[in-house]
Every structure is written in C-alpha cells, then in structure tokens.
Design a protein that fits this description.
Helix content is 39%, strand content 16%. A 4-stranded parallel sheet has the order 3-2-1-7, with helices on both faces. Strands 5-4-6 form a 3-stranded antiparallel sheet, with helices on one face. Strand 2, helix 6 and strand 3 form a beta-alpha-beta unit. Helix 8 packs parallel to helix 9. The model has no long low-confidence stretch (mean pLDDT 91).
Length: 207
C-alpha cells in the first residue's frame, strides 16, 4: 500500500464513528500459523473431507482429533503479531467497534481485543456433544486419546466443521455491525468466501 492510500485509510478511520474489522487467515501468518490452504498448511497434509467435516468426526473422532491436536499445539506456541495488536489498540482508543474473524486461533483475544465475533468458533475450546458444556482445551484432555466430558459425552473442538452451520448469533451480530459500519477494515482475507465476504458489501450498500 502506498503512502497516499495509507493516508486515505487513516483519514477514513479517524472521521468515522462506526468502524469494524473483518479478518481471515492471512492476519495470523506472521504469527507462524500457515493459511490452511497454503503450502505447509493443514489441508496439504490432512484432506478436509477426512479430517474437517462433522461426518468424519462422528465416524472416527480419534482420527480427526489427530489433526486438531496438531493445530492446538501449533496455535498454543504462537503469539499475536503487530496486526492483531494494532486492531486491539484501535479498539482501546475507541476507534474500532468490533473484530469479526474467520480465524479459530484466539490471537485477537490474546492481543487484547474485547469485542470479537467468531464466525468459525475457537480451536482453544471444546464443547460436549451430549451436555453442550463448553470449556478451554488443555493438553491434558487429549494426551490419553480422544477427550470425553465428565458426563461421558464426546468432546468436539468448538469450531465450525464442514457440514455444520455458522452460529446464528455470530451471523446476526456481524450483519448488524455491517449495517451500521461507516468503515470496514479487511485484513488477511480475500473476501471471497461467504457469508464473511458479504460484510464489506453490506456496509457499502448501506452508505
């Protein structure tokens, strides 16, 4: 981005009362988390239909948990980078209303952002398929194999797998923010995958 574009972006942000950010995998690459679809990303080693769909998980949770264990270990060793920190500073300064992210790596939270809409969940948590209890994921949970809840139910990473719906609450909250947004900061995403891709378009259509 050239200096003139940076100045124009800074002016737009400083003049607006309603600013939101939409982020994708690219914002976390500098933190050491490859884009799932890039060389070295998870999909280069784990076929999505075998490891990332809800049907695959229910059919063979032990197999699918091998991938999620690797992702959890990878994410646990990563820290927010300047892009995450910049968005957190904008929020703390009252310039950014919310971050809407497709990422599951928890790095926006680690950077200090407070209002975060997670489209695809959070890989740092698990949810019980029986009692629906949600809790942080720890290494101890999966060191002895497929983790289970105290109620006996199977624990699933609290992420949206292929074949699952994006949480309605997240979609509604993100849409409402886009309707009132004057500026949308798009970071680390091509904005081609829906419904997240609709956010800047929705803001544009509403002025």
């Amino acid at each position: 981005m050239n200096p003139a574009d940076l100045d124009r972006a800074a002016t737009a942000i400083s003049a607006a009362h309603e600013v939101i950010a939409s982020t994708g995998a690219g914002i976390s690459v500098e933190s050491g988390i490859p884009d799932f679809r890039s060389a070295g990303g998870l999909w280069s080693r784990y076929a999505p239909d075998e490891y990332a769909s809800i049907d695959a998980f229910l059919d063979n949770p032990e197999k699918v948990w091998r991938m999620w264990r690797e992702l959890h270990e990878q994410v646990s060793d990563c820290a927010p980078n300047p892009a995450h920190l910049a968005l957190a500073r904008l929020e703390a300064a009252g310039r950014l209303k919310a971050v809407i992210t497709q990422n599951v790596d928890n790095l926006h939270q680690a950077a200090g952002s407070r209002r975060i809409i997670e489209y695809h969940g959070n890989a740092g948590h698990v949810v019980c398929l029986e009692c629906a209890h949600r809790r942080p994921l720890t290494r101890e949970m999966y060191e002895r194999g497929t983790p289970h809840c105290v109620c006996g139910g199977l624990l699933k990473p609290d992420v949206v797998m292929f074949g699952e719906m994006i949480p309605q609450q997240a979609m509604l909250a993100a849409h409402a923010l886009a309707l009132s947004a004057e500026v949308v900061i798009v970071v680390g995403t091509s904005a081609q995958v829906y419904p997240a891709a609709s956010l800047p378009r929705t803001a544009k259509e509403h002025g």
